[in-house]
Amino acid sequence: MAYNKGSAGSSGCILFFVLMFFVYEGIDYLIHRDEINAKELKEKSDFINYWKQSNINFFSKFKCNSSLNYNESKTIKIDKFYIFDTNQEYECNIKEFHQTQIHFKKLDLLNYKSEEIKNANVLIWVKKVPGEQVGSYGDGSRAIRLNAEINFINISENSIYKKINVPCVGEPLQEIYKKNHSPSKIFYFGSLPYERISEIIENEIEKK
């Protein structure tokens, strides 16, 4: 059998460079280990301070749509609420949730907003969902405005007792740029209408 020295030599070189890469990465990690660990600890601490440990624990067991019932016959009075929102496409993970901005005209109503879910009786989940088509483009693509779907959740019963939809704000793209012969598609647009969301929550709080 012929022995290919060229092939063996090139394989040896590749193996050498791969080995040197891992040696370099290992040395670099050892040199910067304390710095890397400190950065990771700070990121974890900042995340906990922002979300609160009790909320992190709650959302770790929260199964989003699959765990919630819908029962509008059991409306409850809001004593304290906690609010968060999600984009149109999301994973059921706190890292993809956002703390929703609230702008109450009556500042005393901010006392109803809780920083921790464990102190609230209502969880308000604002979801971006597809709304109405408001325009189209020459290739057949469509512009669809997103809605803010405001879900009022009875925490003790894990059920949605009210849903309110309001249009998101903003305008669609005037023109779209795509490669030739690419298929038509849907272009979603819209930002959450924080003032309108705040008004709706105000009204729910003040209901007798």
Automatic annotation (TrEMBL):
Keyword Transmembrane annotated: yes
Top-level taxon: Bacteria
Keywords: Membrane, Transmembrane, Transmembrane helix
Ranges that cross the membrane: 6-24
Name the record gives this protein: GLPGLI family protein
